[in-house]
Amino acid sequence: MREFSDAGRDRLTEPWEECVLYVYDDKQPKVHGRYPEWNGGPVRGTLTIGFGHTNAAGGLKIIQGLRLKDREEAGELLTRDLAPCVASVNRQLRVKVSQHQFDALVDTDFNCPSAATAAIKLINAGRSDEVPAKLLQYVCSKGERMQGLVNRRNAEIAWFNHPDDAEPPPAPNPDIVFSPKGERNPPPKGMHESKTIAAGGSILSFGLAEAAKAFNELLAPIKEAKGSLDDLGVFDMLGSAAHDPKFMICAAVVGLAAFIIWDRRQKLMVDHV
Question: What's the whole-model pTM score?
Answer without folding.
Answer: 0.71
